[in-house]
Task: inverse folding
């Protein structure tokens, strides 16, 4: 029989551990963001079309998304404190493969290896963040998430000033980043291992169960998954093709386009940091509702804006839309108590999967029409946020 989920007693926030796991998330996602950041280079070097660019993203995202729920379910039953180091090892190998690849299949292999590293990292690191939260789950998840978003924002900036001038081989220089992350994660793993021993020695609190029916839980999880689909499909259009959009529509340089991408991703990081604490205070259902549906007017305006207003609107979209994920993830873990790894794996996996499918589909659409058409089509996706109306008010339903 699997062990019952560990119950974490209320305590102070373990700030050093939370900071370490957030910094690790920053380093992990910085490496991952190098792939879309170097798409313009790969497109020219290998004469790729937008469909092939989308397939690269799909390969990375699918290798991450398919494994994450399985990893999360397994570690709910058998926590693996040092699996974080192993996951970062996969990322390191993928990074080196991308730096030395001289064919499209090798690029796909490198993308897949980086995705596998992500599939191990996210479920277990989400559990560590929750264990270190001291009961402030929204805050902890936001701090953890903002590390990842900050890394995603830094990737294009570093690519613009390192990879663009020095070429594909310079990606290998970032192996130092992966090694630093492995060192930090080894230290986190030791804390995680000791924490598990401590928790096993304590009397277990009664396992909290949901007061909602199975059907209501399934419906709510389905709605949350549709909201994640809306968010990540739209975000895939911005992160994968924003540089191409700016170059095609406004004739900016590759380096300038990377700087604009950095600004947008920085806004995403800021929005992620806000989502969790605001959800702790006013309720996560309201944050979900506002962040998905509230961004709709701005996405509808974006395809018709000038370069200046494109930058401004992208900042607003990044802040508002990014605030949703932390709230969605914590809401889901409260809807299904005691299954942090499974829920984190499911939603991180869905997030990566939808991003990958979105990138591939939008790449094909861009080849058939234009990159500007992609942004016009995607502008309606946040309307799916209307479904948030049907989510239960979980804060009043706790037992």
Result:
């Amino acid at each position: 029989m699997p062990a019952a989920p560990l119950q974490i007693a209320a305590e102070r926030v373990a700030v050093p551990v939370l900071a370490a796991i957030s910094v690790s998330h920053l380093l992990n996602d910085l490496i991952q963001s190098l792939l879309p950041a170097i798409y313009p280079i790969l497109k020219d070097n290998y004469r790729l079309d937008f469909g092939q660019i989308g397939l690269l993203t799909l390969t990375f995202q699918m290798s991450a998304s398919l494994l994450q729920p399985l990893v999360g379910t397994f570690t709910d039953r058998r926590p693996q404190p040092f699996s974080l180091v192993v996951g970062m090892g996969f990322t390191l190998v993928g990074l080196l493969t991308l730096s030395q690849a001289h064919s499209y299949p090798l690029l796909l292999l490198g993308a897949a290896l980086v995705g596998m590293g992500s599939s191990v990292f996210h479920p277990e690191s989400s559990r560590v963040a929750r264990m270190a939260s001291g009961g402030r789950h929204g805050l902890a998840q936001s701090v953890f998430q903002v590390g990842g978003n900050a890394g995603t924002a830094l990737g294009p900036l570093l690519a613009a000033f390192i990879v663009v001038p020095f070429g594909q081989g310079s990606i290998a220089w970032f192996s130092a980043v992966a090694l630093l992350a492995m060192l930090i994660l080894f230290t986190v793993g030791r804390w995680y291992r000791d924490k598990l021993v401590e928790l096993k020695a304590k009397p277990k609190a009664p396992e909290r169960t949901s007061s909602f029916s199975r059907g209501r839980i399934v419906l709510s999880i389905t709605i949350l998954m549709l909201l994640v689909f809306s968010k990540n499909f739209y975000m895939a259009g911005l992160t994968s093709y924003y540089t191409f959009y700016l170059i095609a529509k406004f004739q900016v340089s590759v380096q300038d386009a990377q700087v604009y991408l950095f600004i947008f991703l920085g806004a995403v990081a800021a929005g992620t940091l806000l989502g969790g604490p605001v959800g702790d205070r006013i309720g996560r259902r309201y944050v979900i509702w506002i962040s998905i549906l509230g961004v709709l007017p701005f996405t509808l305006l974006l395809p018709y804006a000038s370069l200046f207003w494109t930058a401004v609107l992208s900042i607003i979209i990044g802040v508002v839309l990014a605030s949703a994920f932390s709230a969605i993830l914590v809401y889901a873990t409260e809807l299904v108590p005691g299954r942090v790894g499974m829920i984190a794996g499911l939603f991180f996996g869905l997030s990566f999967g939808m991003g990958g499918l979105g990138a591939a589909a939008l790449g094909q659409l861009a080849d058939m029409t234009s990159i500007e058409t992609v942004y016009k089509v995607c502008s309606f996706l946040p309307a799916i946020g209307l479904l948030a109306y049907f989510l239960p008010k979980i804060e009043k339903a706790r037992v």
